[in-house]
Model the fold of this input.
Amino acid sequence: MSIGFRATILVVGLLGVLGGCPNASAQETPYFVAYSSHLEEPGNLEIEFYSIYGTQEAAGDLIAPWAEFEYGVTGWWTTEFYVDSQSTFGDSAVFTGTRWENRFRPLMREHFINPVLYVEFENTTDADKTLKEVVGFDNQLDAAEPNSQANQTHTHELETKLILSSDFKGWNFSENFIGEKNLGHEPWEFGYALGAARPLRLAATPYPCNFCRENFIVGAEMYGGLGTASSFTLSHTSHYLAPIFAWQMPNGITWSISPGFGLTGQSHEFLLRWGVSYEVAGFGRAIRSLFQ
Amino acid sequence: MSRRSIVILLLIGSLAAASATVAKREPRREATREKDSRGVVHAIARAPLKTRRWQSPYNDDPSAILAGKKLFRHHCAECHGDDARGNLHAANLRAPGVQRATPGELEWLLWNGNLAKGMPSWSGLPPQRRWQIVAYLKSLR
Done:
């Protein structure tokens, strides 16, 4: 049986299961890079398709789409699988790898600052340009290598994050400290991501509506590199500031967009991220009931 | 049999399985109606005493109750049922033990969740929306 045929069977089966599941509205924050302490609701599956457009000085502009499948295993554990790809103008389009992340809430109650521990294993190539995190001395020139060469270099990386997050008067404030280790004997690289977001209206209106202010979230995030274990510094690192705008529709679909601006000479001058996500409620129960 | 026929058969089969899954849920929901609410009552009992004094900004405000009903359907009904009587693994929120809780205790429970027992924290919802859900829950008594 060919891989394409098996993939078709898998997709058809998945669609069948999804067809039996209701949708739900998530309470997650709209960040693209930063993470908050809000995990996926247990048993829910969130399917997300995102993309980034970026300008580059030394190569054609890039577009890097990726898909995320996020599942709430328990109230304190969320797992997520990523599939990354990339296309550079004037070059080629390539599949750049997969990532598997897990987030854990160590404290079972809410506090003024809520910690979450994040562990991710990345199996990608050097052609990966999703810029889901900026660490070390990441530089826009890193992305200038032609896809045919960059896609030959496979990297296995362990990424860890300490996520701190607070909710105050409808605002969410999130601070992430990132440590990333290339498992091929390279030093730890560090980075950060900060985010703040708030719905345009805090209270809900009594009736269902698509365009009321309660469904729109605005915010901003800032992220960048902090050097390596041997050179922990802000100099010669790239940093970005990006406003965010998200629209959470009552049918479980969320649209989001975020223009980002490079703040240093090492940064891409302009990034534009956009995406759509769909929350499937009770996915875990539907799968379990198929086998009962 | 061609591959296309196999795919079509699989499509029909998986859709039928999904429909059967939904259909199977209904009797199970009936069987678990008026589900034991001891778990949620124990969770409420862990609320600090000061939460009993927390005042709802909405009380019996009809528009807040309607908004709370809408939010309940979006966020809670999948587990607790459209009528809040509970199903599968989630508690009956109309049970006397739950209805005896003060609005402040219910808001505290929504804010914290009961992570070890599978109820998520709803701290990501603005407090106004949590209070609207509480107003709806108290209207069920």
Notes: Residues 3-31 of chain B form the longest helix (29 residues). Helices of chain B lie at 3-31, 38-45, 62-75, 77-80, 96-99, 103-112, 127-138. The domain at 32-138 of chain B is CATH 1.10.760.10 (Cytochrome Bc1 Complex; Chain D, domain 2). DSSP finds seven helices and no strands in chain B.
